[in-house]
């Protein structure tokens, strides 16, 4: 009897795990036989998010040259490097363009097929185009995975969950808003993947309150404008079709995510990690209490990102500094994180305040700003977006790119800590994972055309029972409200252990799997084994991806940036193969298959 693994989820994370499995089988598992069952209702490779049957208007928010699914020598892993092409190299697309999600899906399908082809003939992959609903079985024995529409479960020695981003049932606020909409004949679209939402109820010319200014909003914007027949001319101006609703958009920050950086890095990279590396994490984890993000982690992260920023500023633009880099670096290293000595050093060494890094100000760009009307707010937000576009496409401000590299380095270290709360992930996305520059230029054109209207920061939404409408207000324009018969929550569902949208995850929690306060599944950051509420890791169950406390910044990454998800995939693949190899004495599971795979 062959050993077997069930992998639930065949998107990029499942594909990445399979790629690492293929890379490690020869050294860890030899020519023993192995059955790999891949379970997903969507095609393997792209999975749900990158599937082919979605609008070609939906783009990636990365350039083709910045997307790879393959490891290199910057990935800190024990398994072998298995190089491969970037999306640009594989597809022939212009390296500096932002491809459609369909194009990325085709690349991911090829990566999947390449990983399958790299497996030895003793390993067989079986695809099951359905959903997994439950995992059962004893800790010491084989596991059973029940599939939708089938009476007999898959039986396996190990289960690896690579579920990707998950839906969630509505929380109390969203249920109340949905009930209100039902009573008054309004439209309420709760948090969801925009590509999966039915937007047909949003009527032409009617106001729509949109809460959320991240990538889900960018998708919404594209589908309700060009997706309804509007177009941009050669000068970038938008010409409505007349079928668009009027989108009133706001959020906690009140501004869109920062534009993707539009230039290429040249010269020396900051030597990272420097102040938040493996030794620093080891020291934090050795303490008797669990590290607190704001108290223990954030000061080191702030100093690390500052180091990346100032390293680039001093080495690339010394004319904008008042001292030499070696002198600054020595004093910067000696100063306490976030302390007055560090602030004084920066003030004395960097004359222009605009050249200093202020992460708190970046996180709250509209704090303290008040506008007398929504009309004046429109001008203010357009100026903010234009300034952001200019800066993020100006190589003279490549210290921003230094911070981006610092963010990637920090993210990789935080994976060892486990769940650090939702704020960090939102802040990372705001600075490092924003929309392509062309999307923000489209946003400006839509604002000029009156199709998009800005609400500002600190947006609140109320259900007005008297008028039977939704009302939105913001801290940016106190005392003034926008009314609409439609509300769209333009954001992904928040993870929840109490309201998981996945029946499989619900069953795991009911059986005893642990969840963090943020609703994420508890796993051992070292190898991805699922952790129970009793603190014990399950020897036969693993989980990788954004639904876990060890969520990485993405299932794929820029070449030569460490690839934190790749490191996790490798660790889990090696742990799984080692476990399977050690299940039985040598020779008892040493079969060679005949026939064609």
Describe the structure.
There is one protein chain. With 597 residues, the chain is of the alpha/beta class. Among the domains are: 3-168 and 501-581, FAD/NAD(P)-binding domain, CATH 3.50.50; 278-383 and 391-432, no CATH class. It contains 16 helices and 19 strands. The chain has a six-stranded mixed sheet with strand order 3-2-1-7-19-18, covered by helices on one side. Strands 8-17-9-12-13 form a five-stranded parallel sheet. Strand 1, helix 1 (12-28) and strand 2 form a beta-alpha-beta unit. Helix 1 (12-28) packs parallel to helix 3 (101-118), helix 1 (12-28) packs across helix 16 (564-581) and helix 7 (293-316) runs antiparallel to helix 12 (399-414). This is Adenylate cyclase. InterPro entries: HpyO/CreE_NAD-binding (IPR038732), L-asp_N-monooxygenase_NS-form (IPR052189).
List keywords for this structure.
597 residues, alpha/beta, FAD/NAD(P)-binding domain, 6-stranded mixed β-sheet, 5-stranded parallel β-sheet, 16 helices, 19 strands, disordered C terminus
What's a concise summary of this model?
The protein is an alpha/beta fold and 597 residues long.
- Helix percentage range: 25-40%
Total DSSP helices: 16
CATH architect. name of the domain at 3-168 and 501-581: 3-Layer(bba) Sandwich
**Alpha-beta content class:** alpha/beta
Give the percentage of residues in beta strands.
5-15%
Label the overall shape: globular
Tally of extended strands? 19
Low-confidence stretches: 586-597
Q: Sheet with the most strands?
A: 6 strands, mixed
Task: Output the CATH homologous superfamily of the domain at 3-168 and 501-581.
Answer: FAD/NAD(P)-binding domain
| Rg, nearest Å | 25 Å
CATH class of the domain at 3-168 and 501-581: Alpha Beta
Find the CATH topology of the domain at 3-168 and 501-581.
FAD/NAD(P)-binding domain
Physical arrangement of strands within the biggest beta sheet: 3-2-1-7-19-18
Average pLDDT, rounded to a whole number, is 94
Measured between the Cα atoms of the first and last residue, the distance is 16 Å
